Amino acid sequence: MEKFTVLEGIAAPLDRANVDTDAIIPKQFLKSIKRTGFGPNLFDEWRYLDHGEPGMDNSTRPINPDFVLNQKRYAGARILLARDNFGCGSSREHAPWALSDYGFRCIIAPSFADIFFNNCFKNGLLPIVLPGEMVDDLFDRVEKTPGFSLRVDLLEQRIVSVADGSVIPFEIDAFRKEALIQGLDDIGMTLAKADRIREYEERRQHEAPWLFSQA
Amino acid sequence: MSGKTLYDKLWDQHLVHDDPNGTSLIYIDRHLVHEVTSPQAFEGLHIAGRKPWRTDSMLAVPDHNVPTTVDSADIDDPVSRLQIQTLDQNCNHFGVMQFGMSDPRQGIVHVIGPEQGLTLPGMTIVCGDSHTSTHGAFGALAFGIGTSEVEHVMATQCLISRKSKNMRVRVEGELKPGVTAKDVVLAIIGEIGTAGGTGYAIEFSGPVIESLSMEGRMTVCNMTIEAGARAGMIRPDQKTIDYLEGRPYTPKGEMWERAVASWRELESDADAVFDAEIVIDGGEIRPQVTWGTSPEMVVSLGESVPDPDAEPDPIKQEGMRRALDYMGLEPGTPIDSVSLDLIFIGSCTNSRIEDLREAAEIARGRKVSGTVKQALVVPGSGLVKRQAESEGLHRIFIDAGFEWRNPGCSMCLAMNADRLKPQERCASTSNRNFEGRQGQGGRTHLVSPAMAAAAAIAGHFADPASL
């Protein structure tokens, strides 16, 4: 997994609540058996004016000029500002894959859906929860200031406005922080506890043997 | 010290290790696999040279992409076909049991787990699918995971997790005629909102929940994720045990007795404390219809589409306007005057035998309205289909003008050929009314099977009890 320490980039505002994973990456693109290549279809139904299908040449499709990510001022954005309950709905990890593939590495919102939030950390994508009024303020500043950029410093747990140096601290679970900073492989970490897993299994096989006998 | 909740007990029974870093390693008893969220996980195992820890904990089934037309044995879409073939190859390579497309037991993963007795009380159950919460109806801790976690469970039989908070939703009283489990869960979501359960495991309890059949309980737990909670659960009781007894993969003989004895202890202690508690009067619940693009945007039959101007929160107001625009609805429109183009009865929420009986009861001896372009009934599994046919339900549907299809996820998320065209309006027994969910530009109204059947007959939403 790609490490995450400090990220500086343009912030793009997606001003709607309850953005679901169907919107982030529509189902027709879930037929892929790969982890990569979802970026051009991120927010497909909002981004383009036609209906997208896998295998299309996205560069020739008509884009929706009203959609925020199609505005020149947000080109190359690395940070997505979002509203409450971002990533609700399906468990598809294709959603963080699409966001990463597009170029986002950090999402800031007042709240996230649980499964999506969890999936982000598995993919080097940092979801930051900030109080609603701070997110409101960031939306305000992004919209007023073309090229508004933020520096997200995971080590120091703070977001710095590049233009004026103002600082917003944020909270993050210590384990998840460490995993992102080091780009740790969860499976490797768990397999280091293989003996504990076997001990558990041995005990459970006595307590509840029917859990080990079928399928 | 206060007692433990059902969730606390399930958590404690599966705790392998509490790490000093604040995470817990949780053991997973059952891992259900489908074709959409598994290929990258299997690929990860290949690349790392790893093997599944316990293939006997796994069952794989293709469901999202499969065609439901009776005469199409092969999938026309090459991309869908490749995904299904990839599941075949991976299951063969790693030795994972699969109910393949031609297996009579094939169906929606959340229908076949319980149907086969692979879902048992006291288990931890995961699947790369958010509607895994369904299995909580049996007193299991069941939740959806992403593909990285699918790979993690395959490789280690465990998940690195953090305990959720406890919420109890009690539904008191008694349901009125024509009000079903689907109406109960939509009313709960309407009450607490789509993020109301975020960070919680929800236990559903109270006389109304206890009165529901296992199918009804599965419908309620299925949509827990639509209230933001990853896991929903109901304590197992005699109904649970009766449902499971004799199913292909349930324990047998003395093992069954031992298992049942342990399941009877699976309940929240009387003095257990919940972090949040919601009480709903079941007698007040009326048939529900969603009007917008989030499951919380729901009204009772007899009510009207709400007016965004009456909403004080500006973000919510904007969301409502966007939803009304997408749905092609005006504020103040009585919901029962809204006419439908399509009807979809199916999905992991409502495709079990009882759902089909409920819909057939309404359809019996009646005809689908001439204004409805298509009405689909998609059973949840091959065995549900067979059971329905043995009861003659298919004849009732076909005679009424419904199409009787083969099992699969179908139009719930439209990954196969069953989908809405832009602006088509559908009464659907599925779980999500998101923009584009059933096809780009399609308009979804979530309802119960009884309401979907009533809407098919009337051509617009109508009280099933009044037909």
Short précis:
The complex is a heterodimer of chains A (215) and B (467). With 215 residues, chain A is α/β, with parallel strands linked by helices.
Description:
The complex is a heterodimer of chains A (215) and B (467). Chain A is an alpha/beta fold and 215 residues long. Chain A is built from 8 helices and 7 strands; from the N terminus they run βααβαβαβαβββααα. Chain A starts with 5 loop residues before the first strand and ends in an 8-residue tail after the last helix. Chain B is an alpha/beta fold. Chain B has helices spanning 6-13, 39-48, 78-94, 109-116, 147-156, 181-192, 207-211, 214-222, 238-244, 253-263, 314-327, 353-363, 382-390, 393-400, 449-458, and strands at residues 15-18, 24-27, 30-33, 58-60, 124-127, 141-144, 158-161, 165-172, 200-205, 231-233, 276-281, 288-290, 298-300, 342-345, 374-377, 403-404, 425-428, 443-446. Chain B is globular and about 55 Å long. Classes of the chains: A alpha/beta (215), B alpha/beta (467).
| Main beta sheet of chain A | 7 strands, mixed
Distance between the termini of chain B: 53 Å
Distance N to C terminus of chain A = 33 Å
Gyration radius from CA atoms of chain A, angstroms: 20 Å
Mean pLDDT of chain A: 96
Mean pLDDT of chain B: 96
Helix content of chain A: 25-40%
Q: Strand order, biggest sheet of chain A? A: 4-3-2-1-5-6-7
Tell me what portion of residues of chain A adopts beta-strand conformation: 5-15%
Q: Which word captures the global form of chain A?
A: globular
Helix share bin of chain B: 25-40%
> How many β-strands of chain B, per DSSP?
18
Oligomer: heterodimer
Order of helices and strands of chain A: EHHEHEHEHEEEHHH
Low-pLDDT sequence parts of chain A: none
Specify which chain pair forms the largest interface: A-B, 62 and 84 residues
